[in-house]
Amino acid sequence: MHRFPRFLLGLTAALPLRLLHGLGTVLGWTMYGMSPTYRTNLKANLALAGYTDARTRRAAIASAGRMLTETPAIWLRPQREVAGLVREATGVDTALAARAQGKALLFLTPHMGCFEVAAQYAAQLMPITVLYRAPKAGWLEPLMREGRGRGEVRLVPADFSGVRELFAALKRREAVGFLPDQVPGIGEGEWADFFGRPAYTATLAPKLARRPDVACFLAYARRLPRGAGYAIVIRPFPESLPQETPTRLLNRALEALVRECPEQYLWGYNRYKTPRGAKARPA
Question: pTM for the whole thing?
Answer without folding.
Answer: 0.93
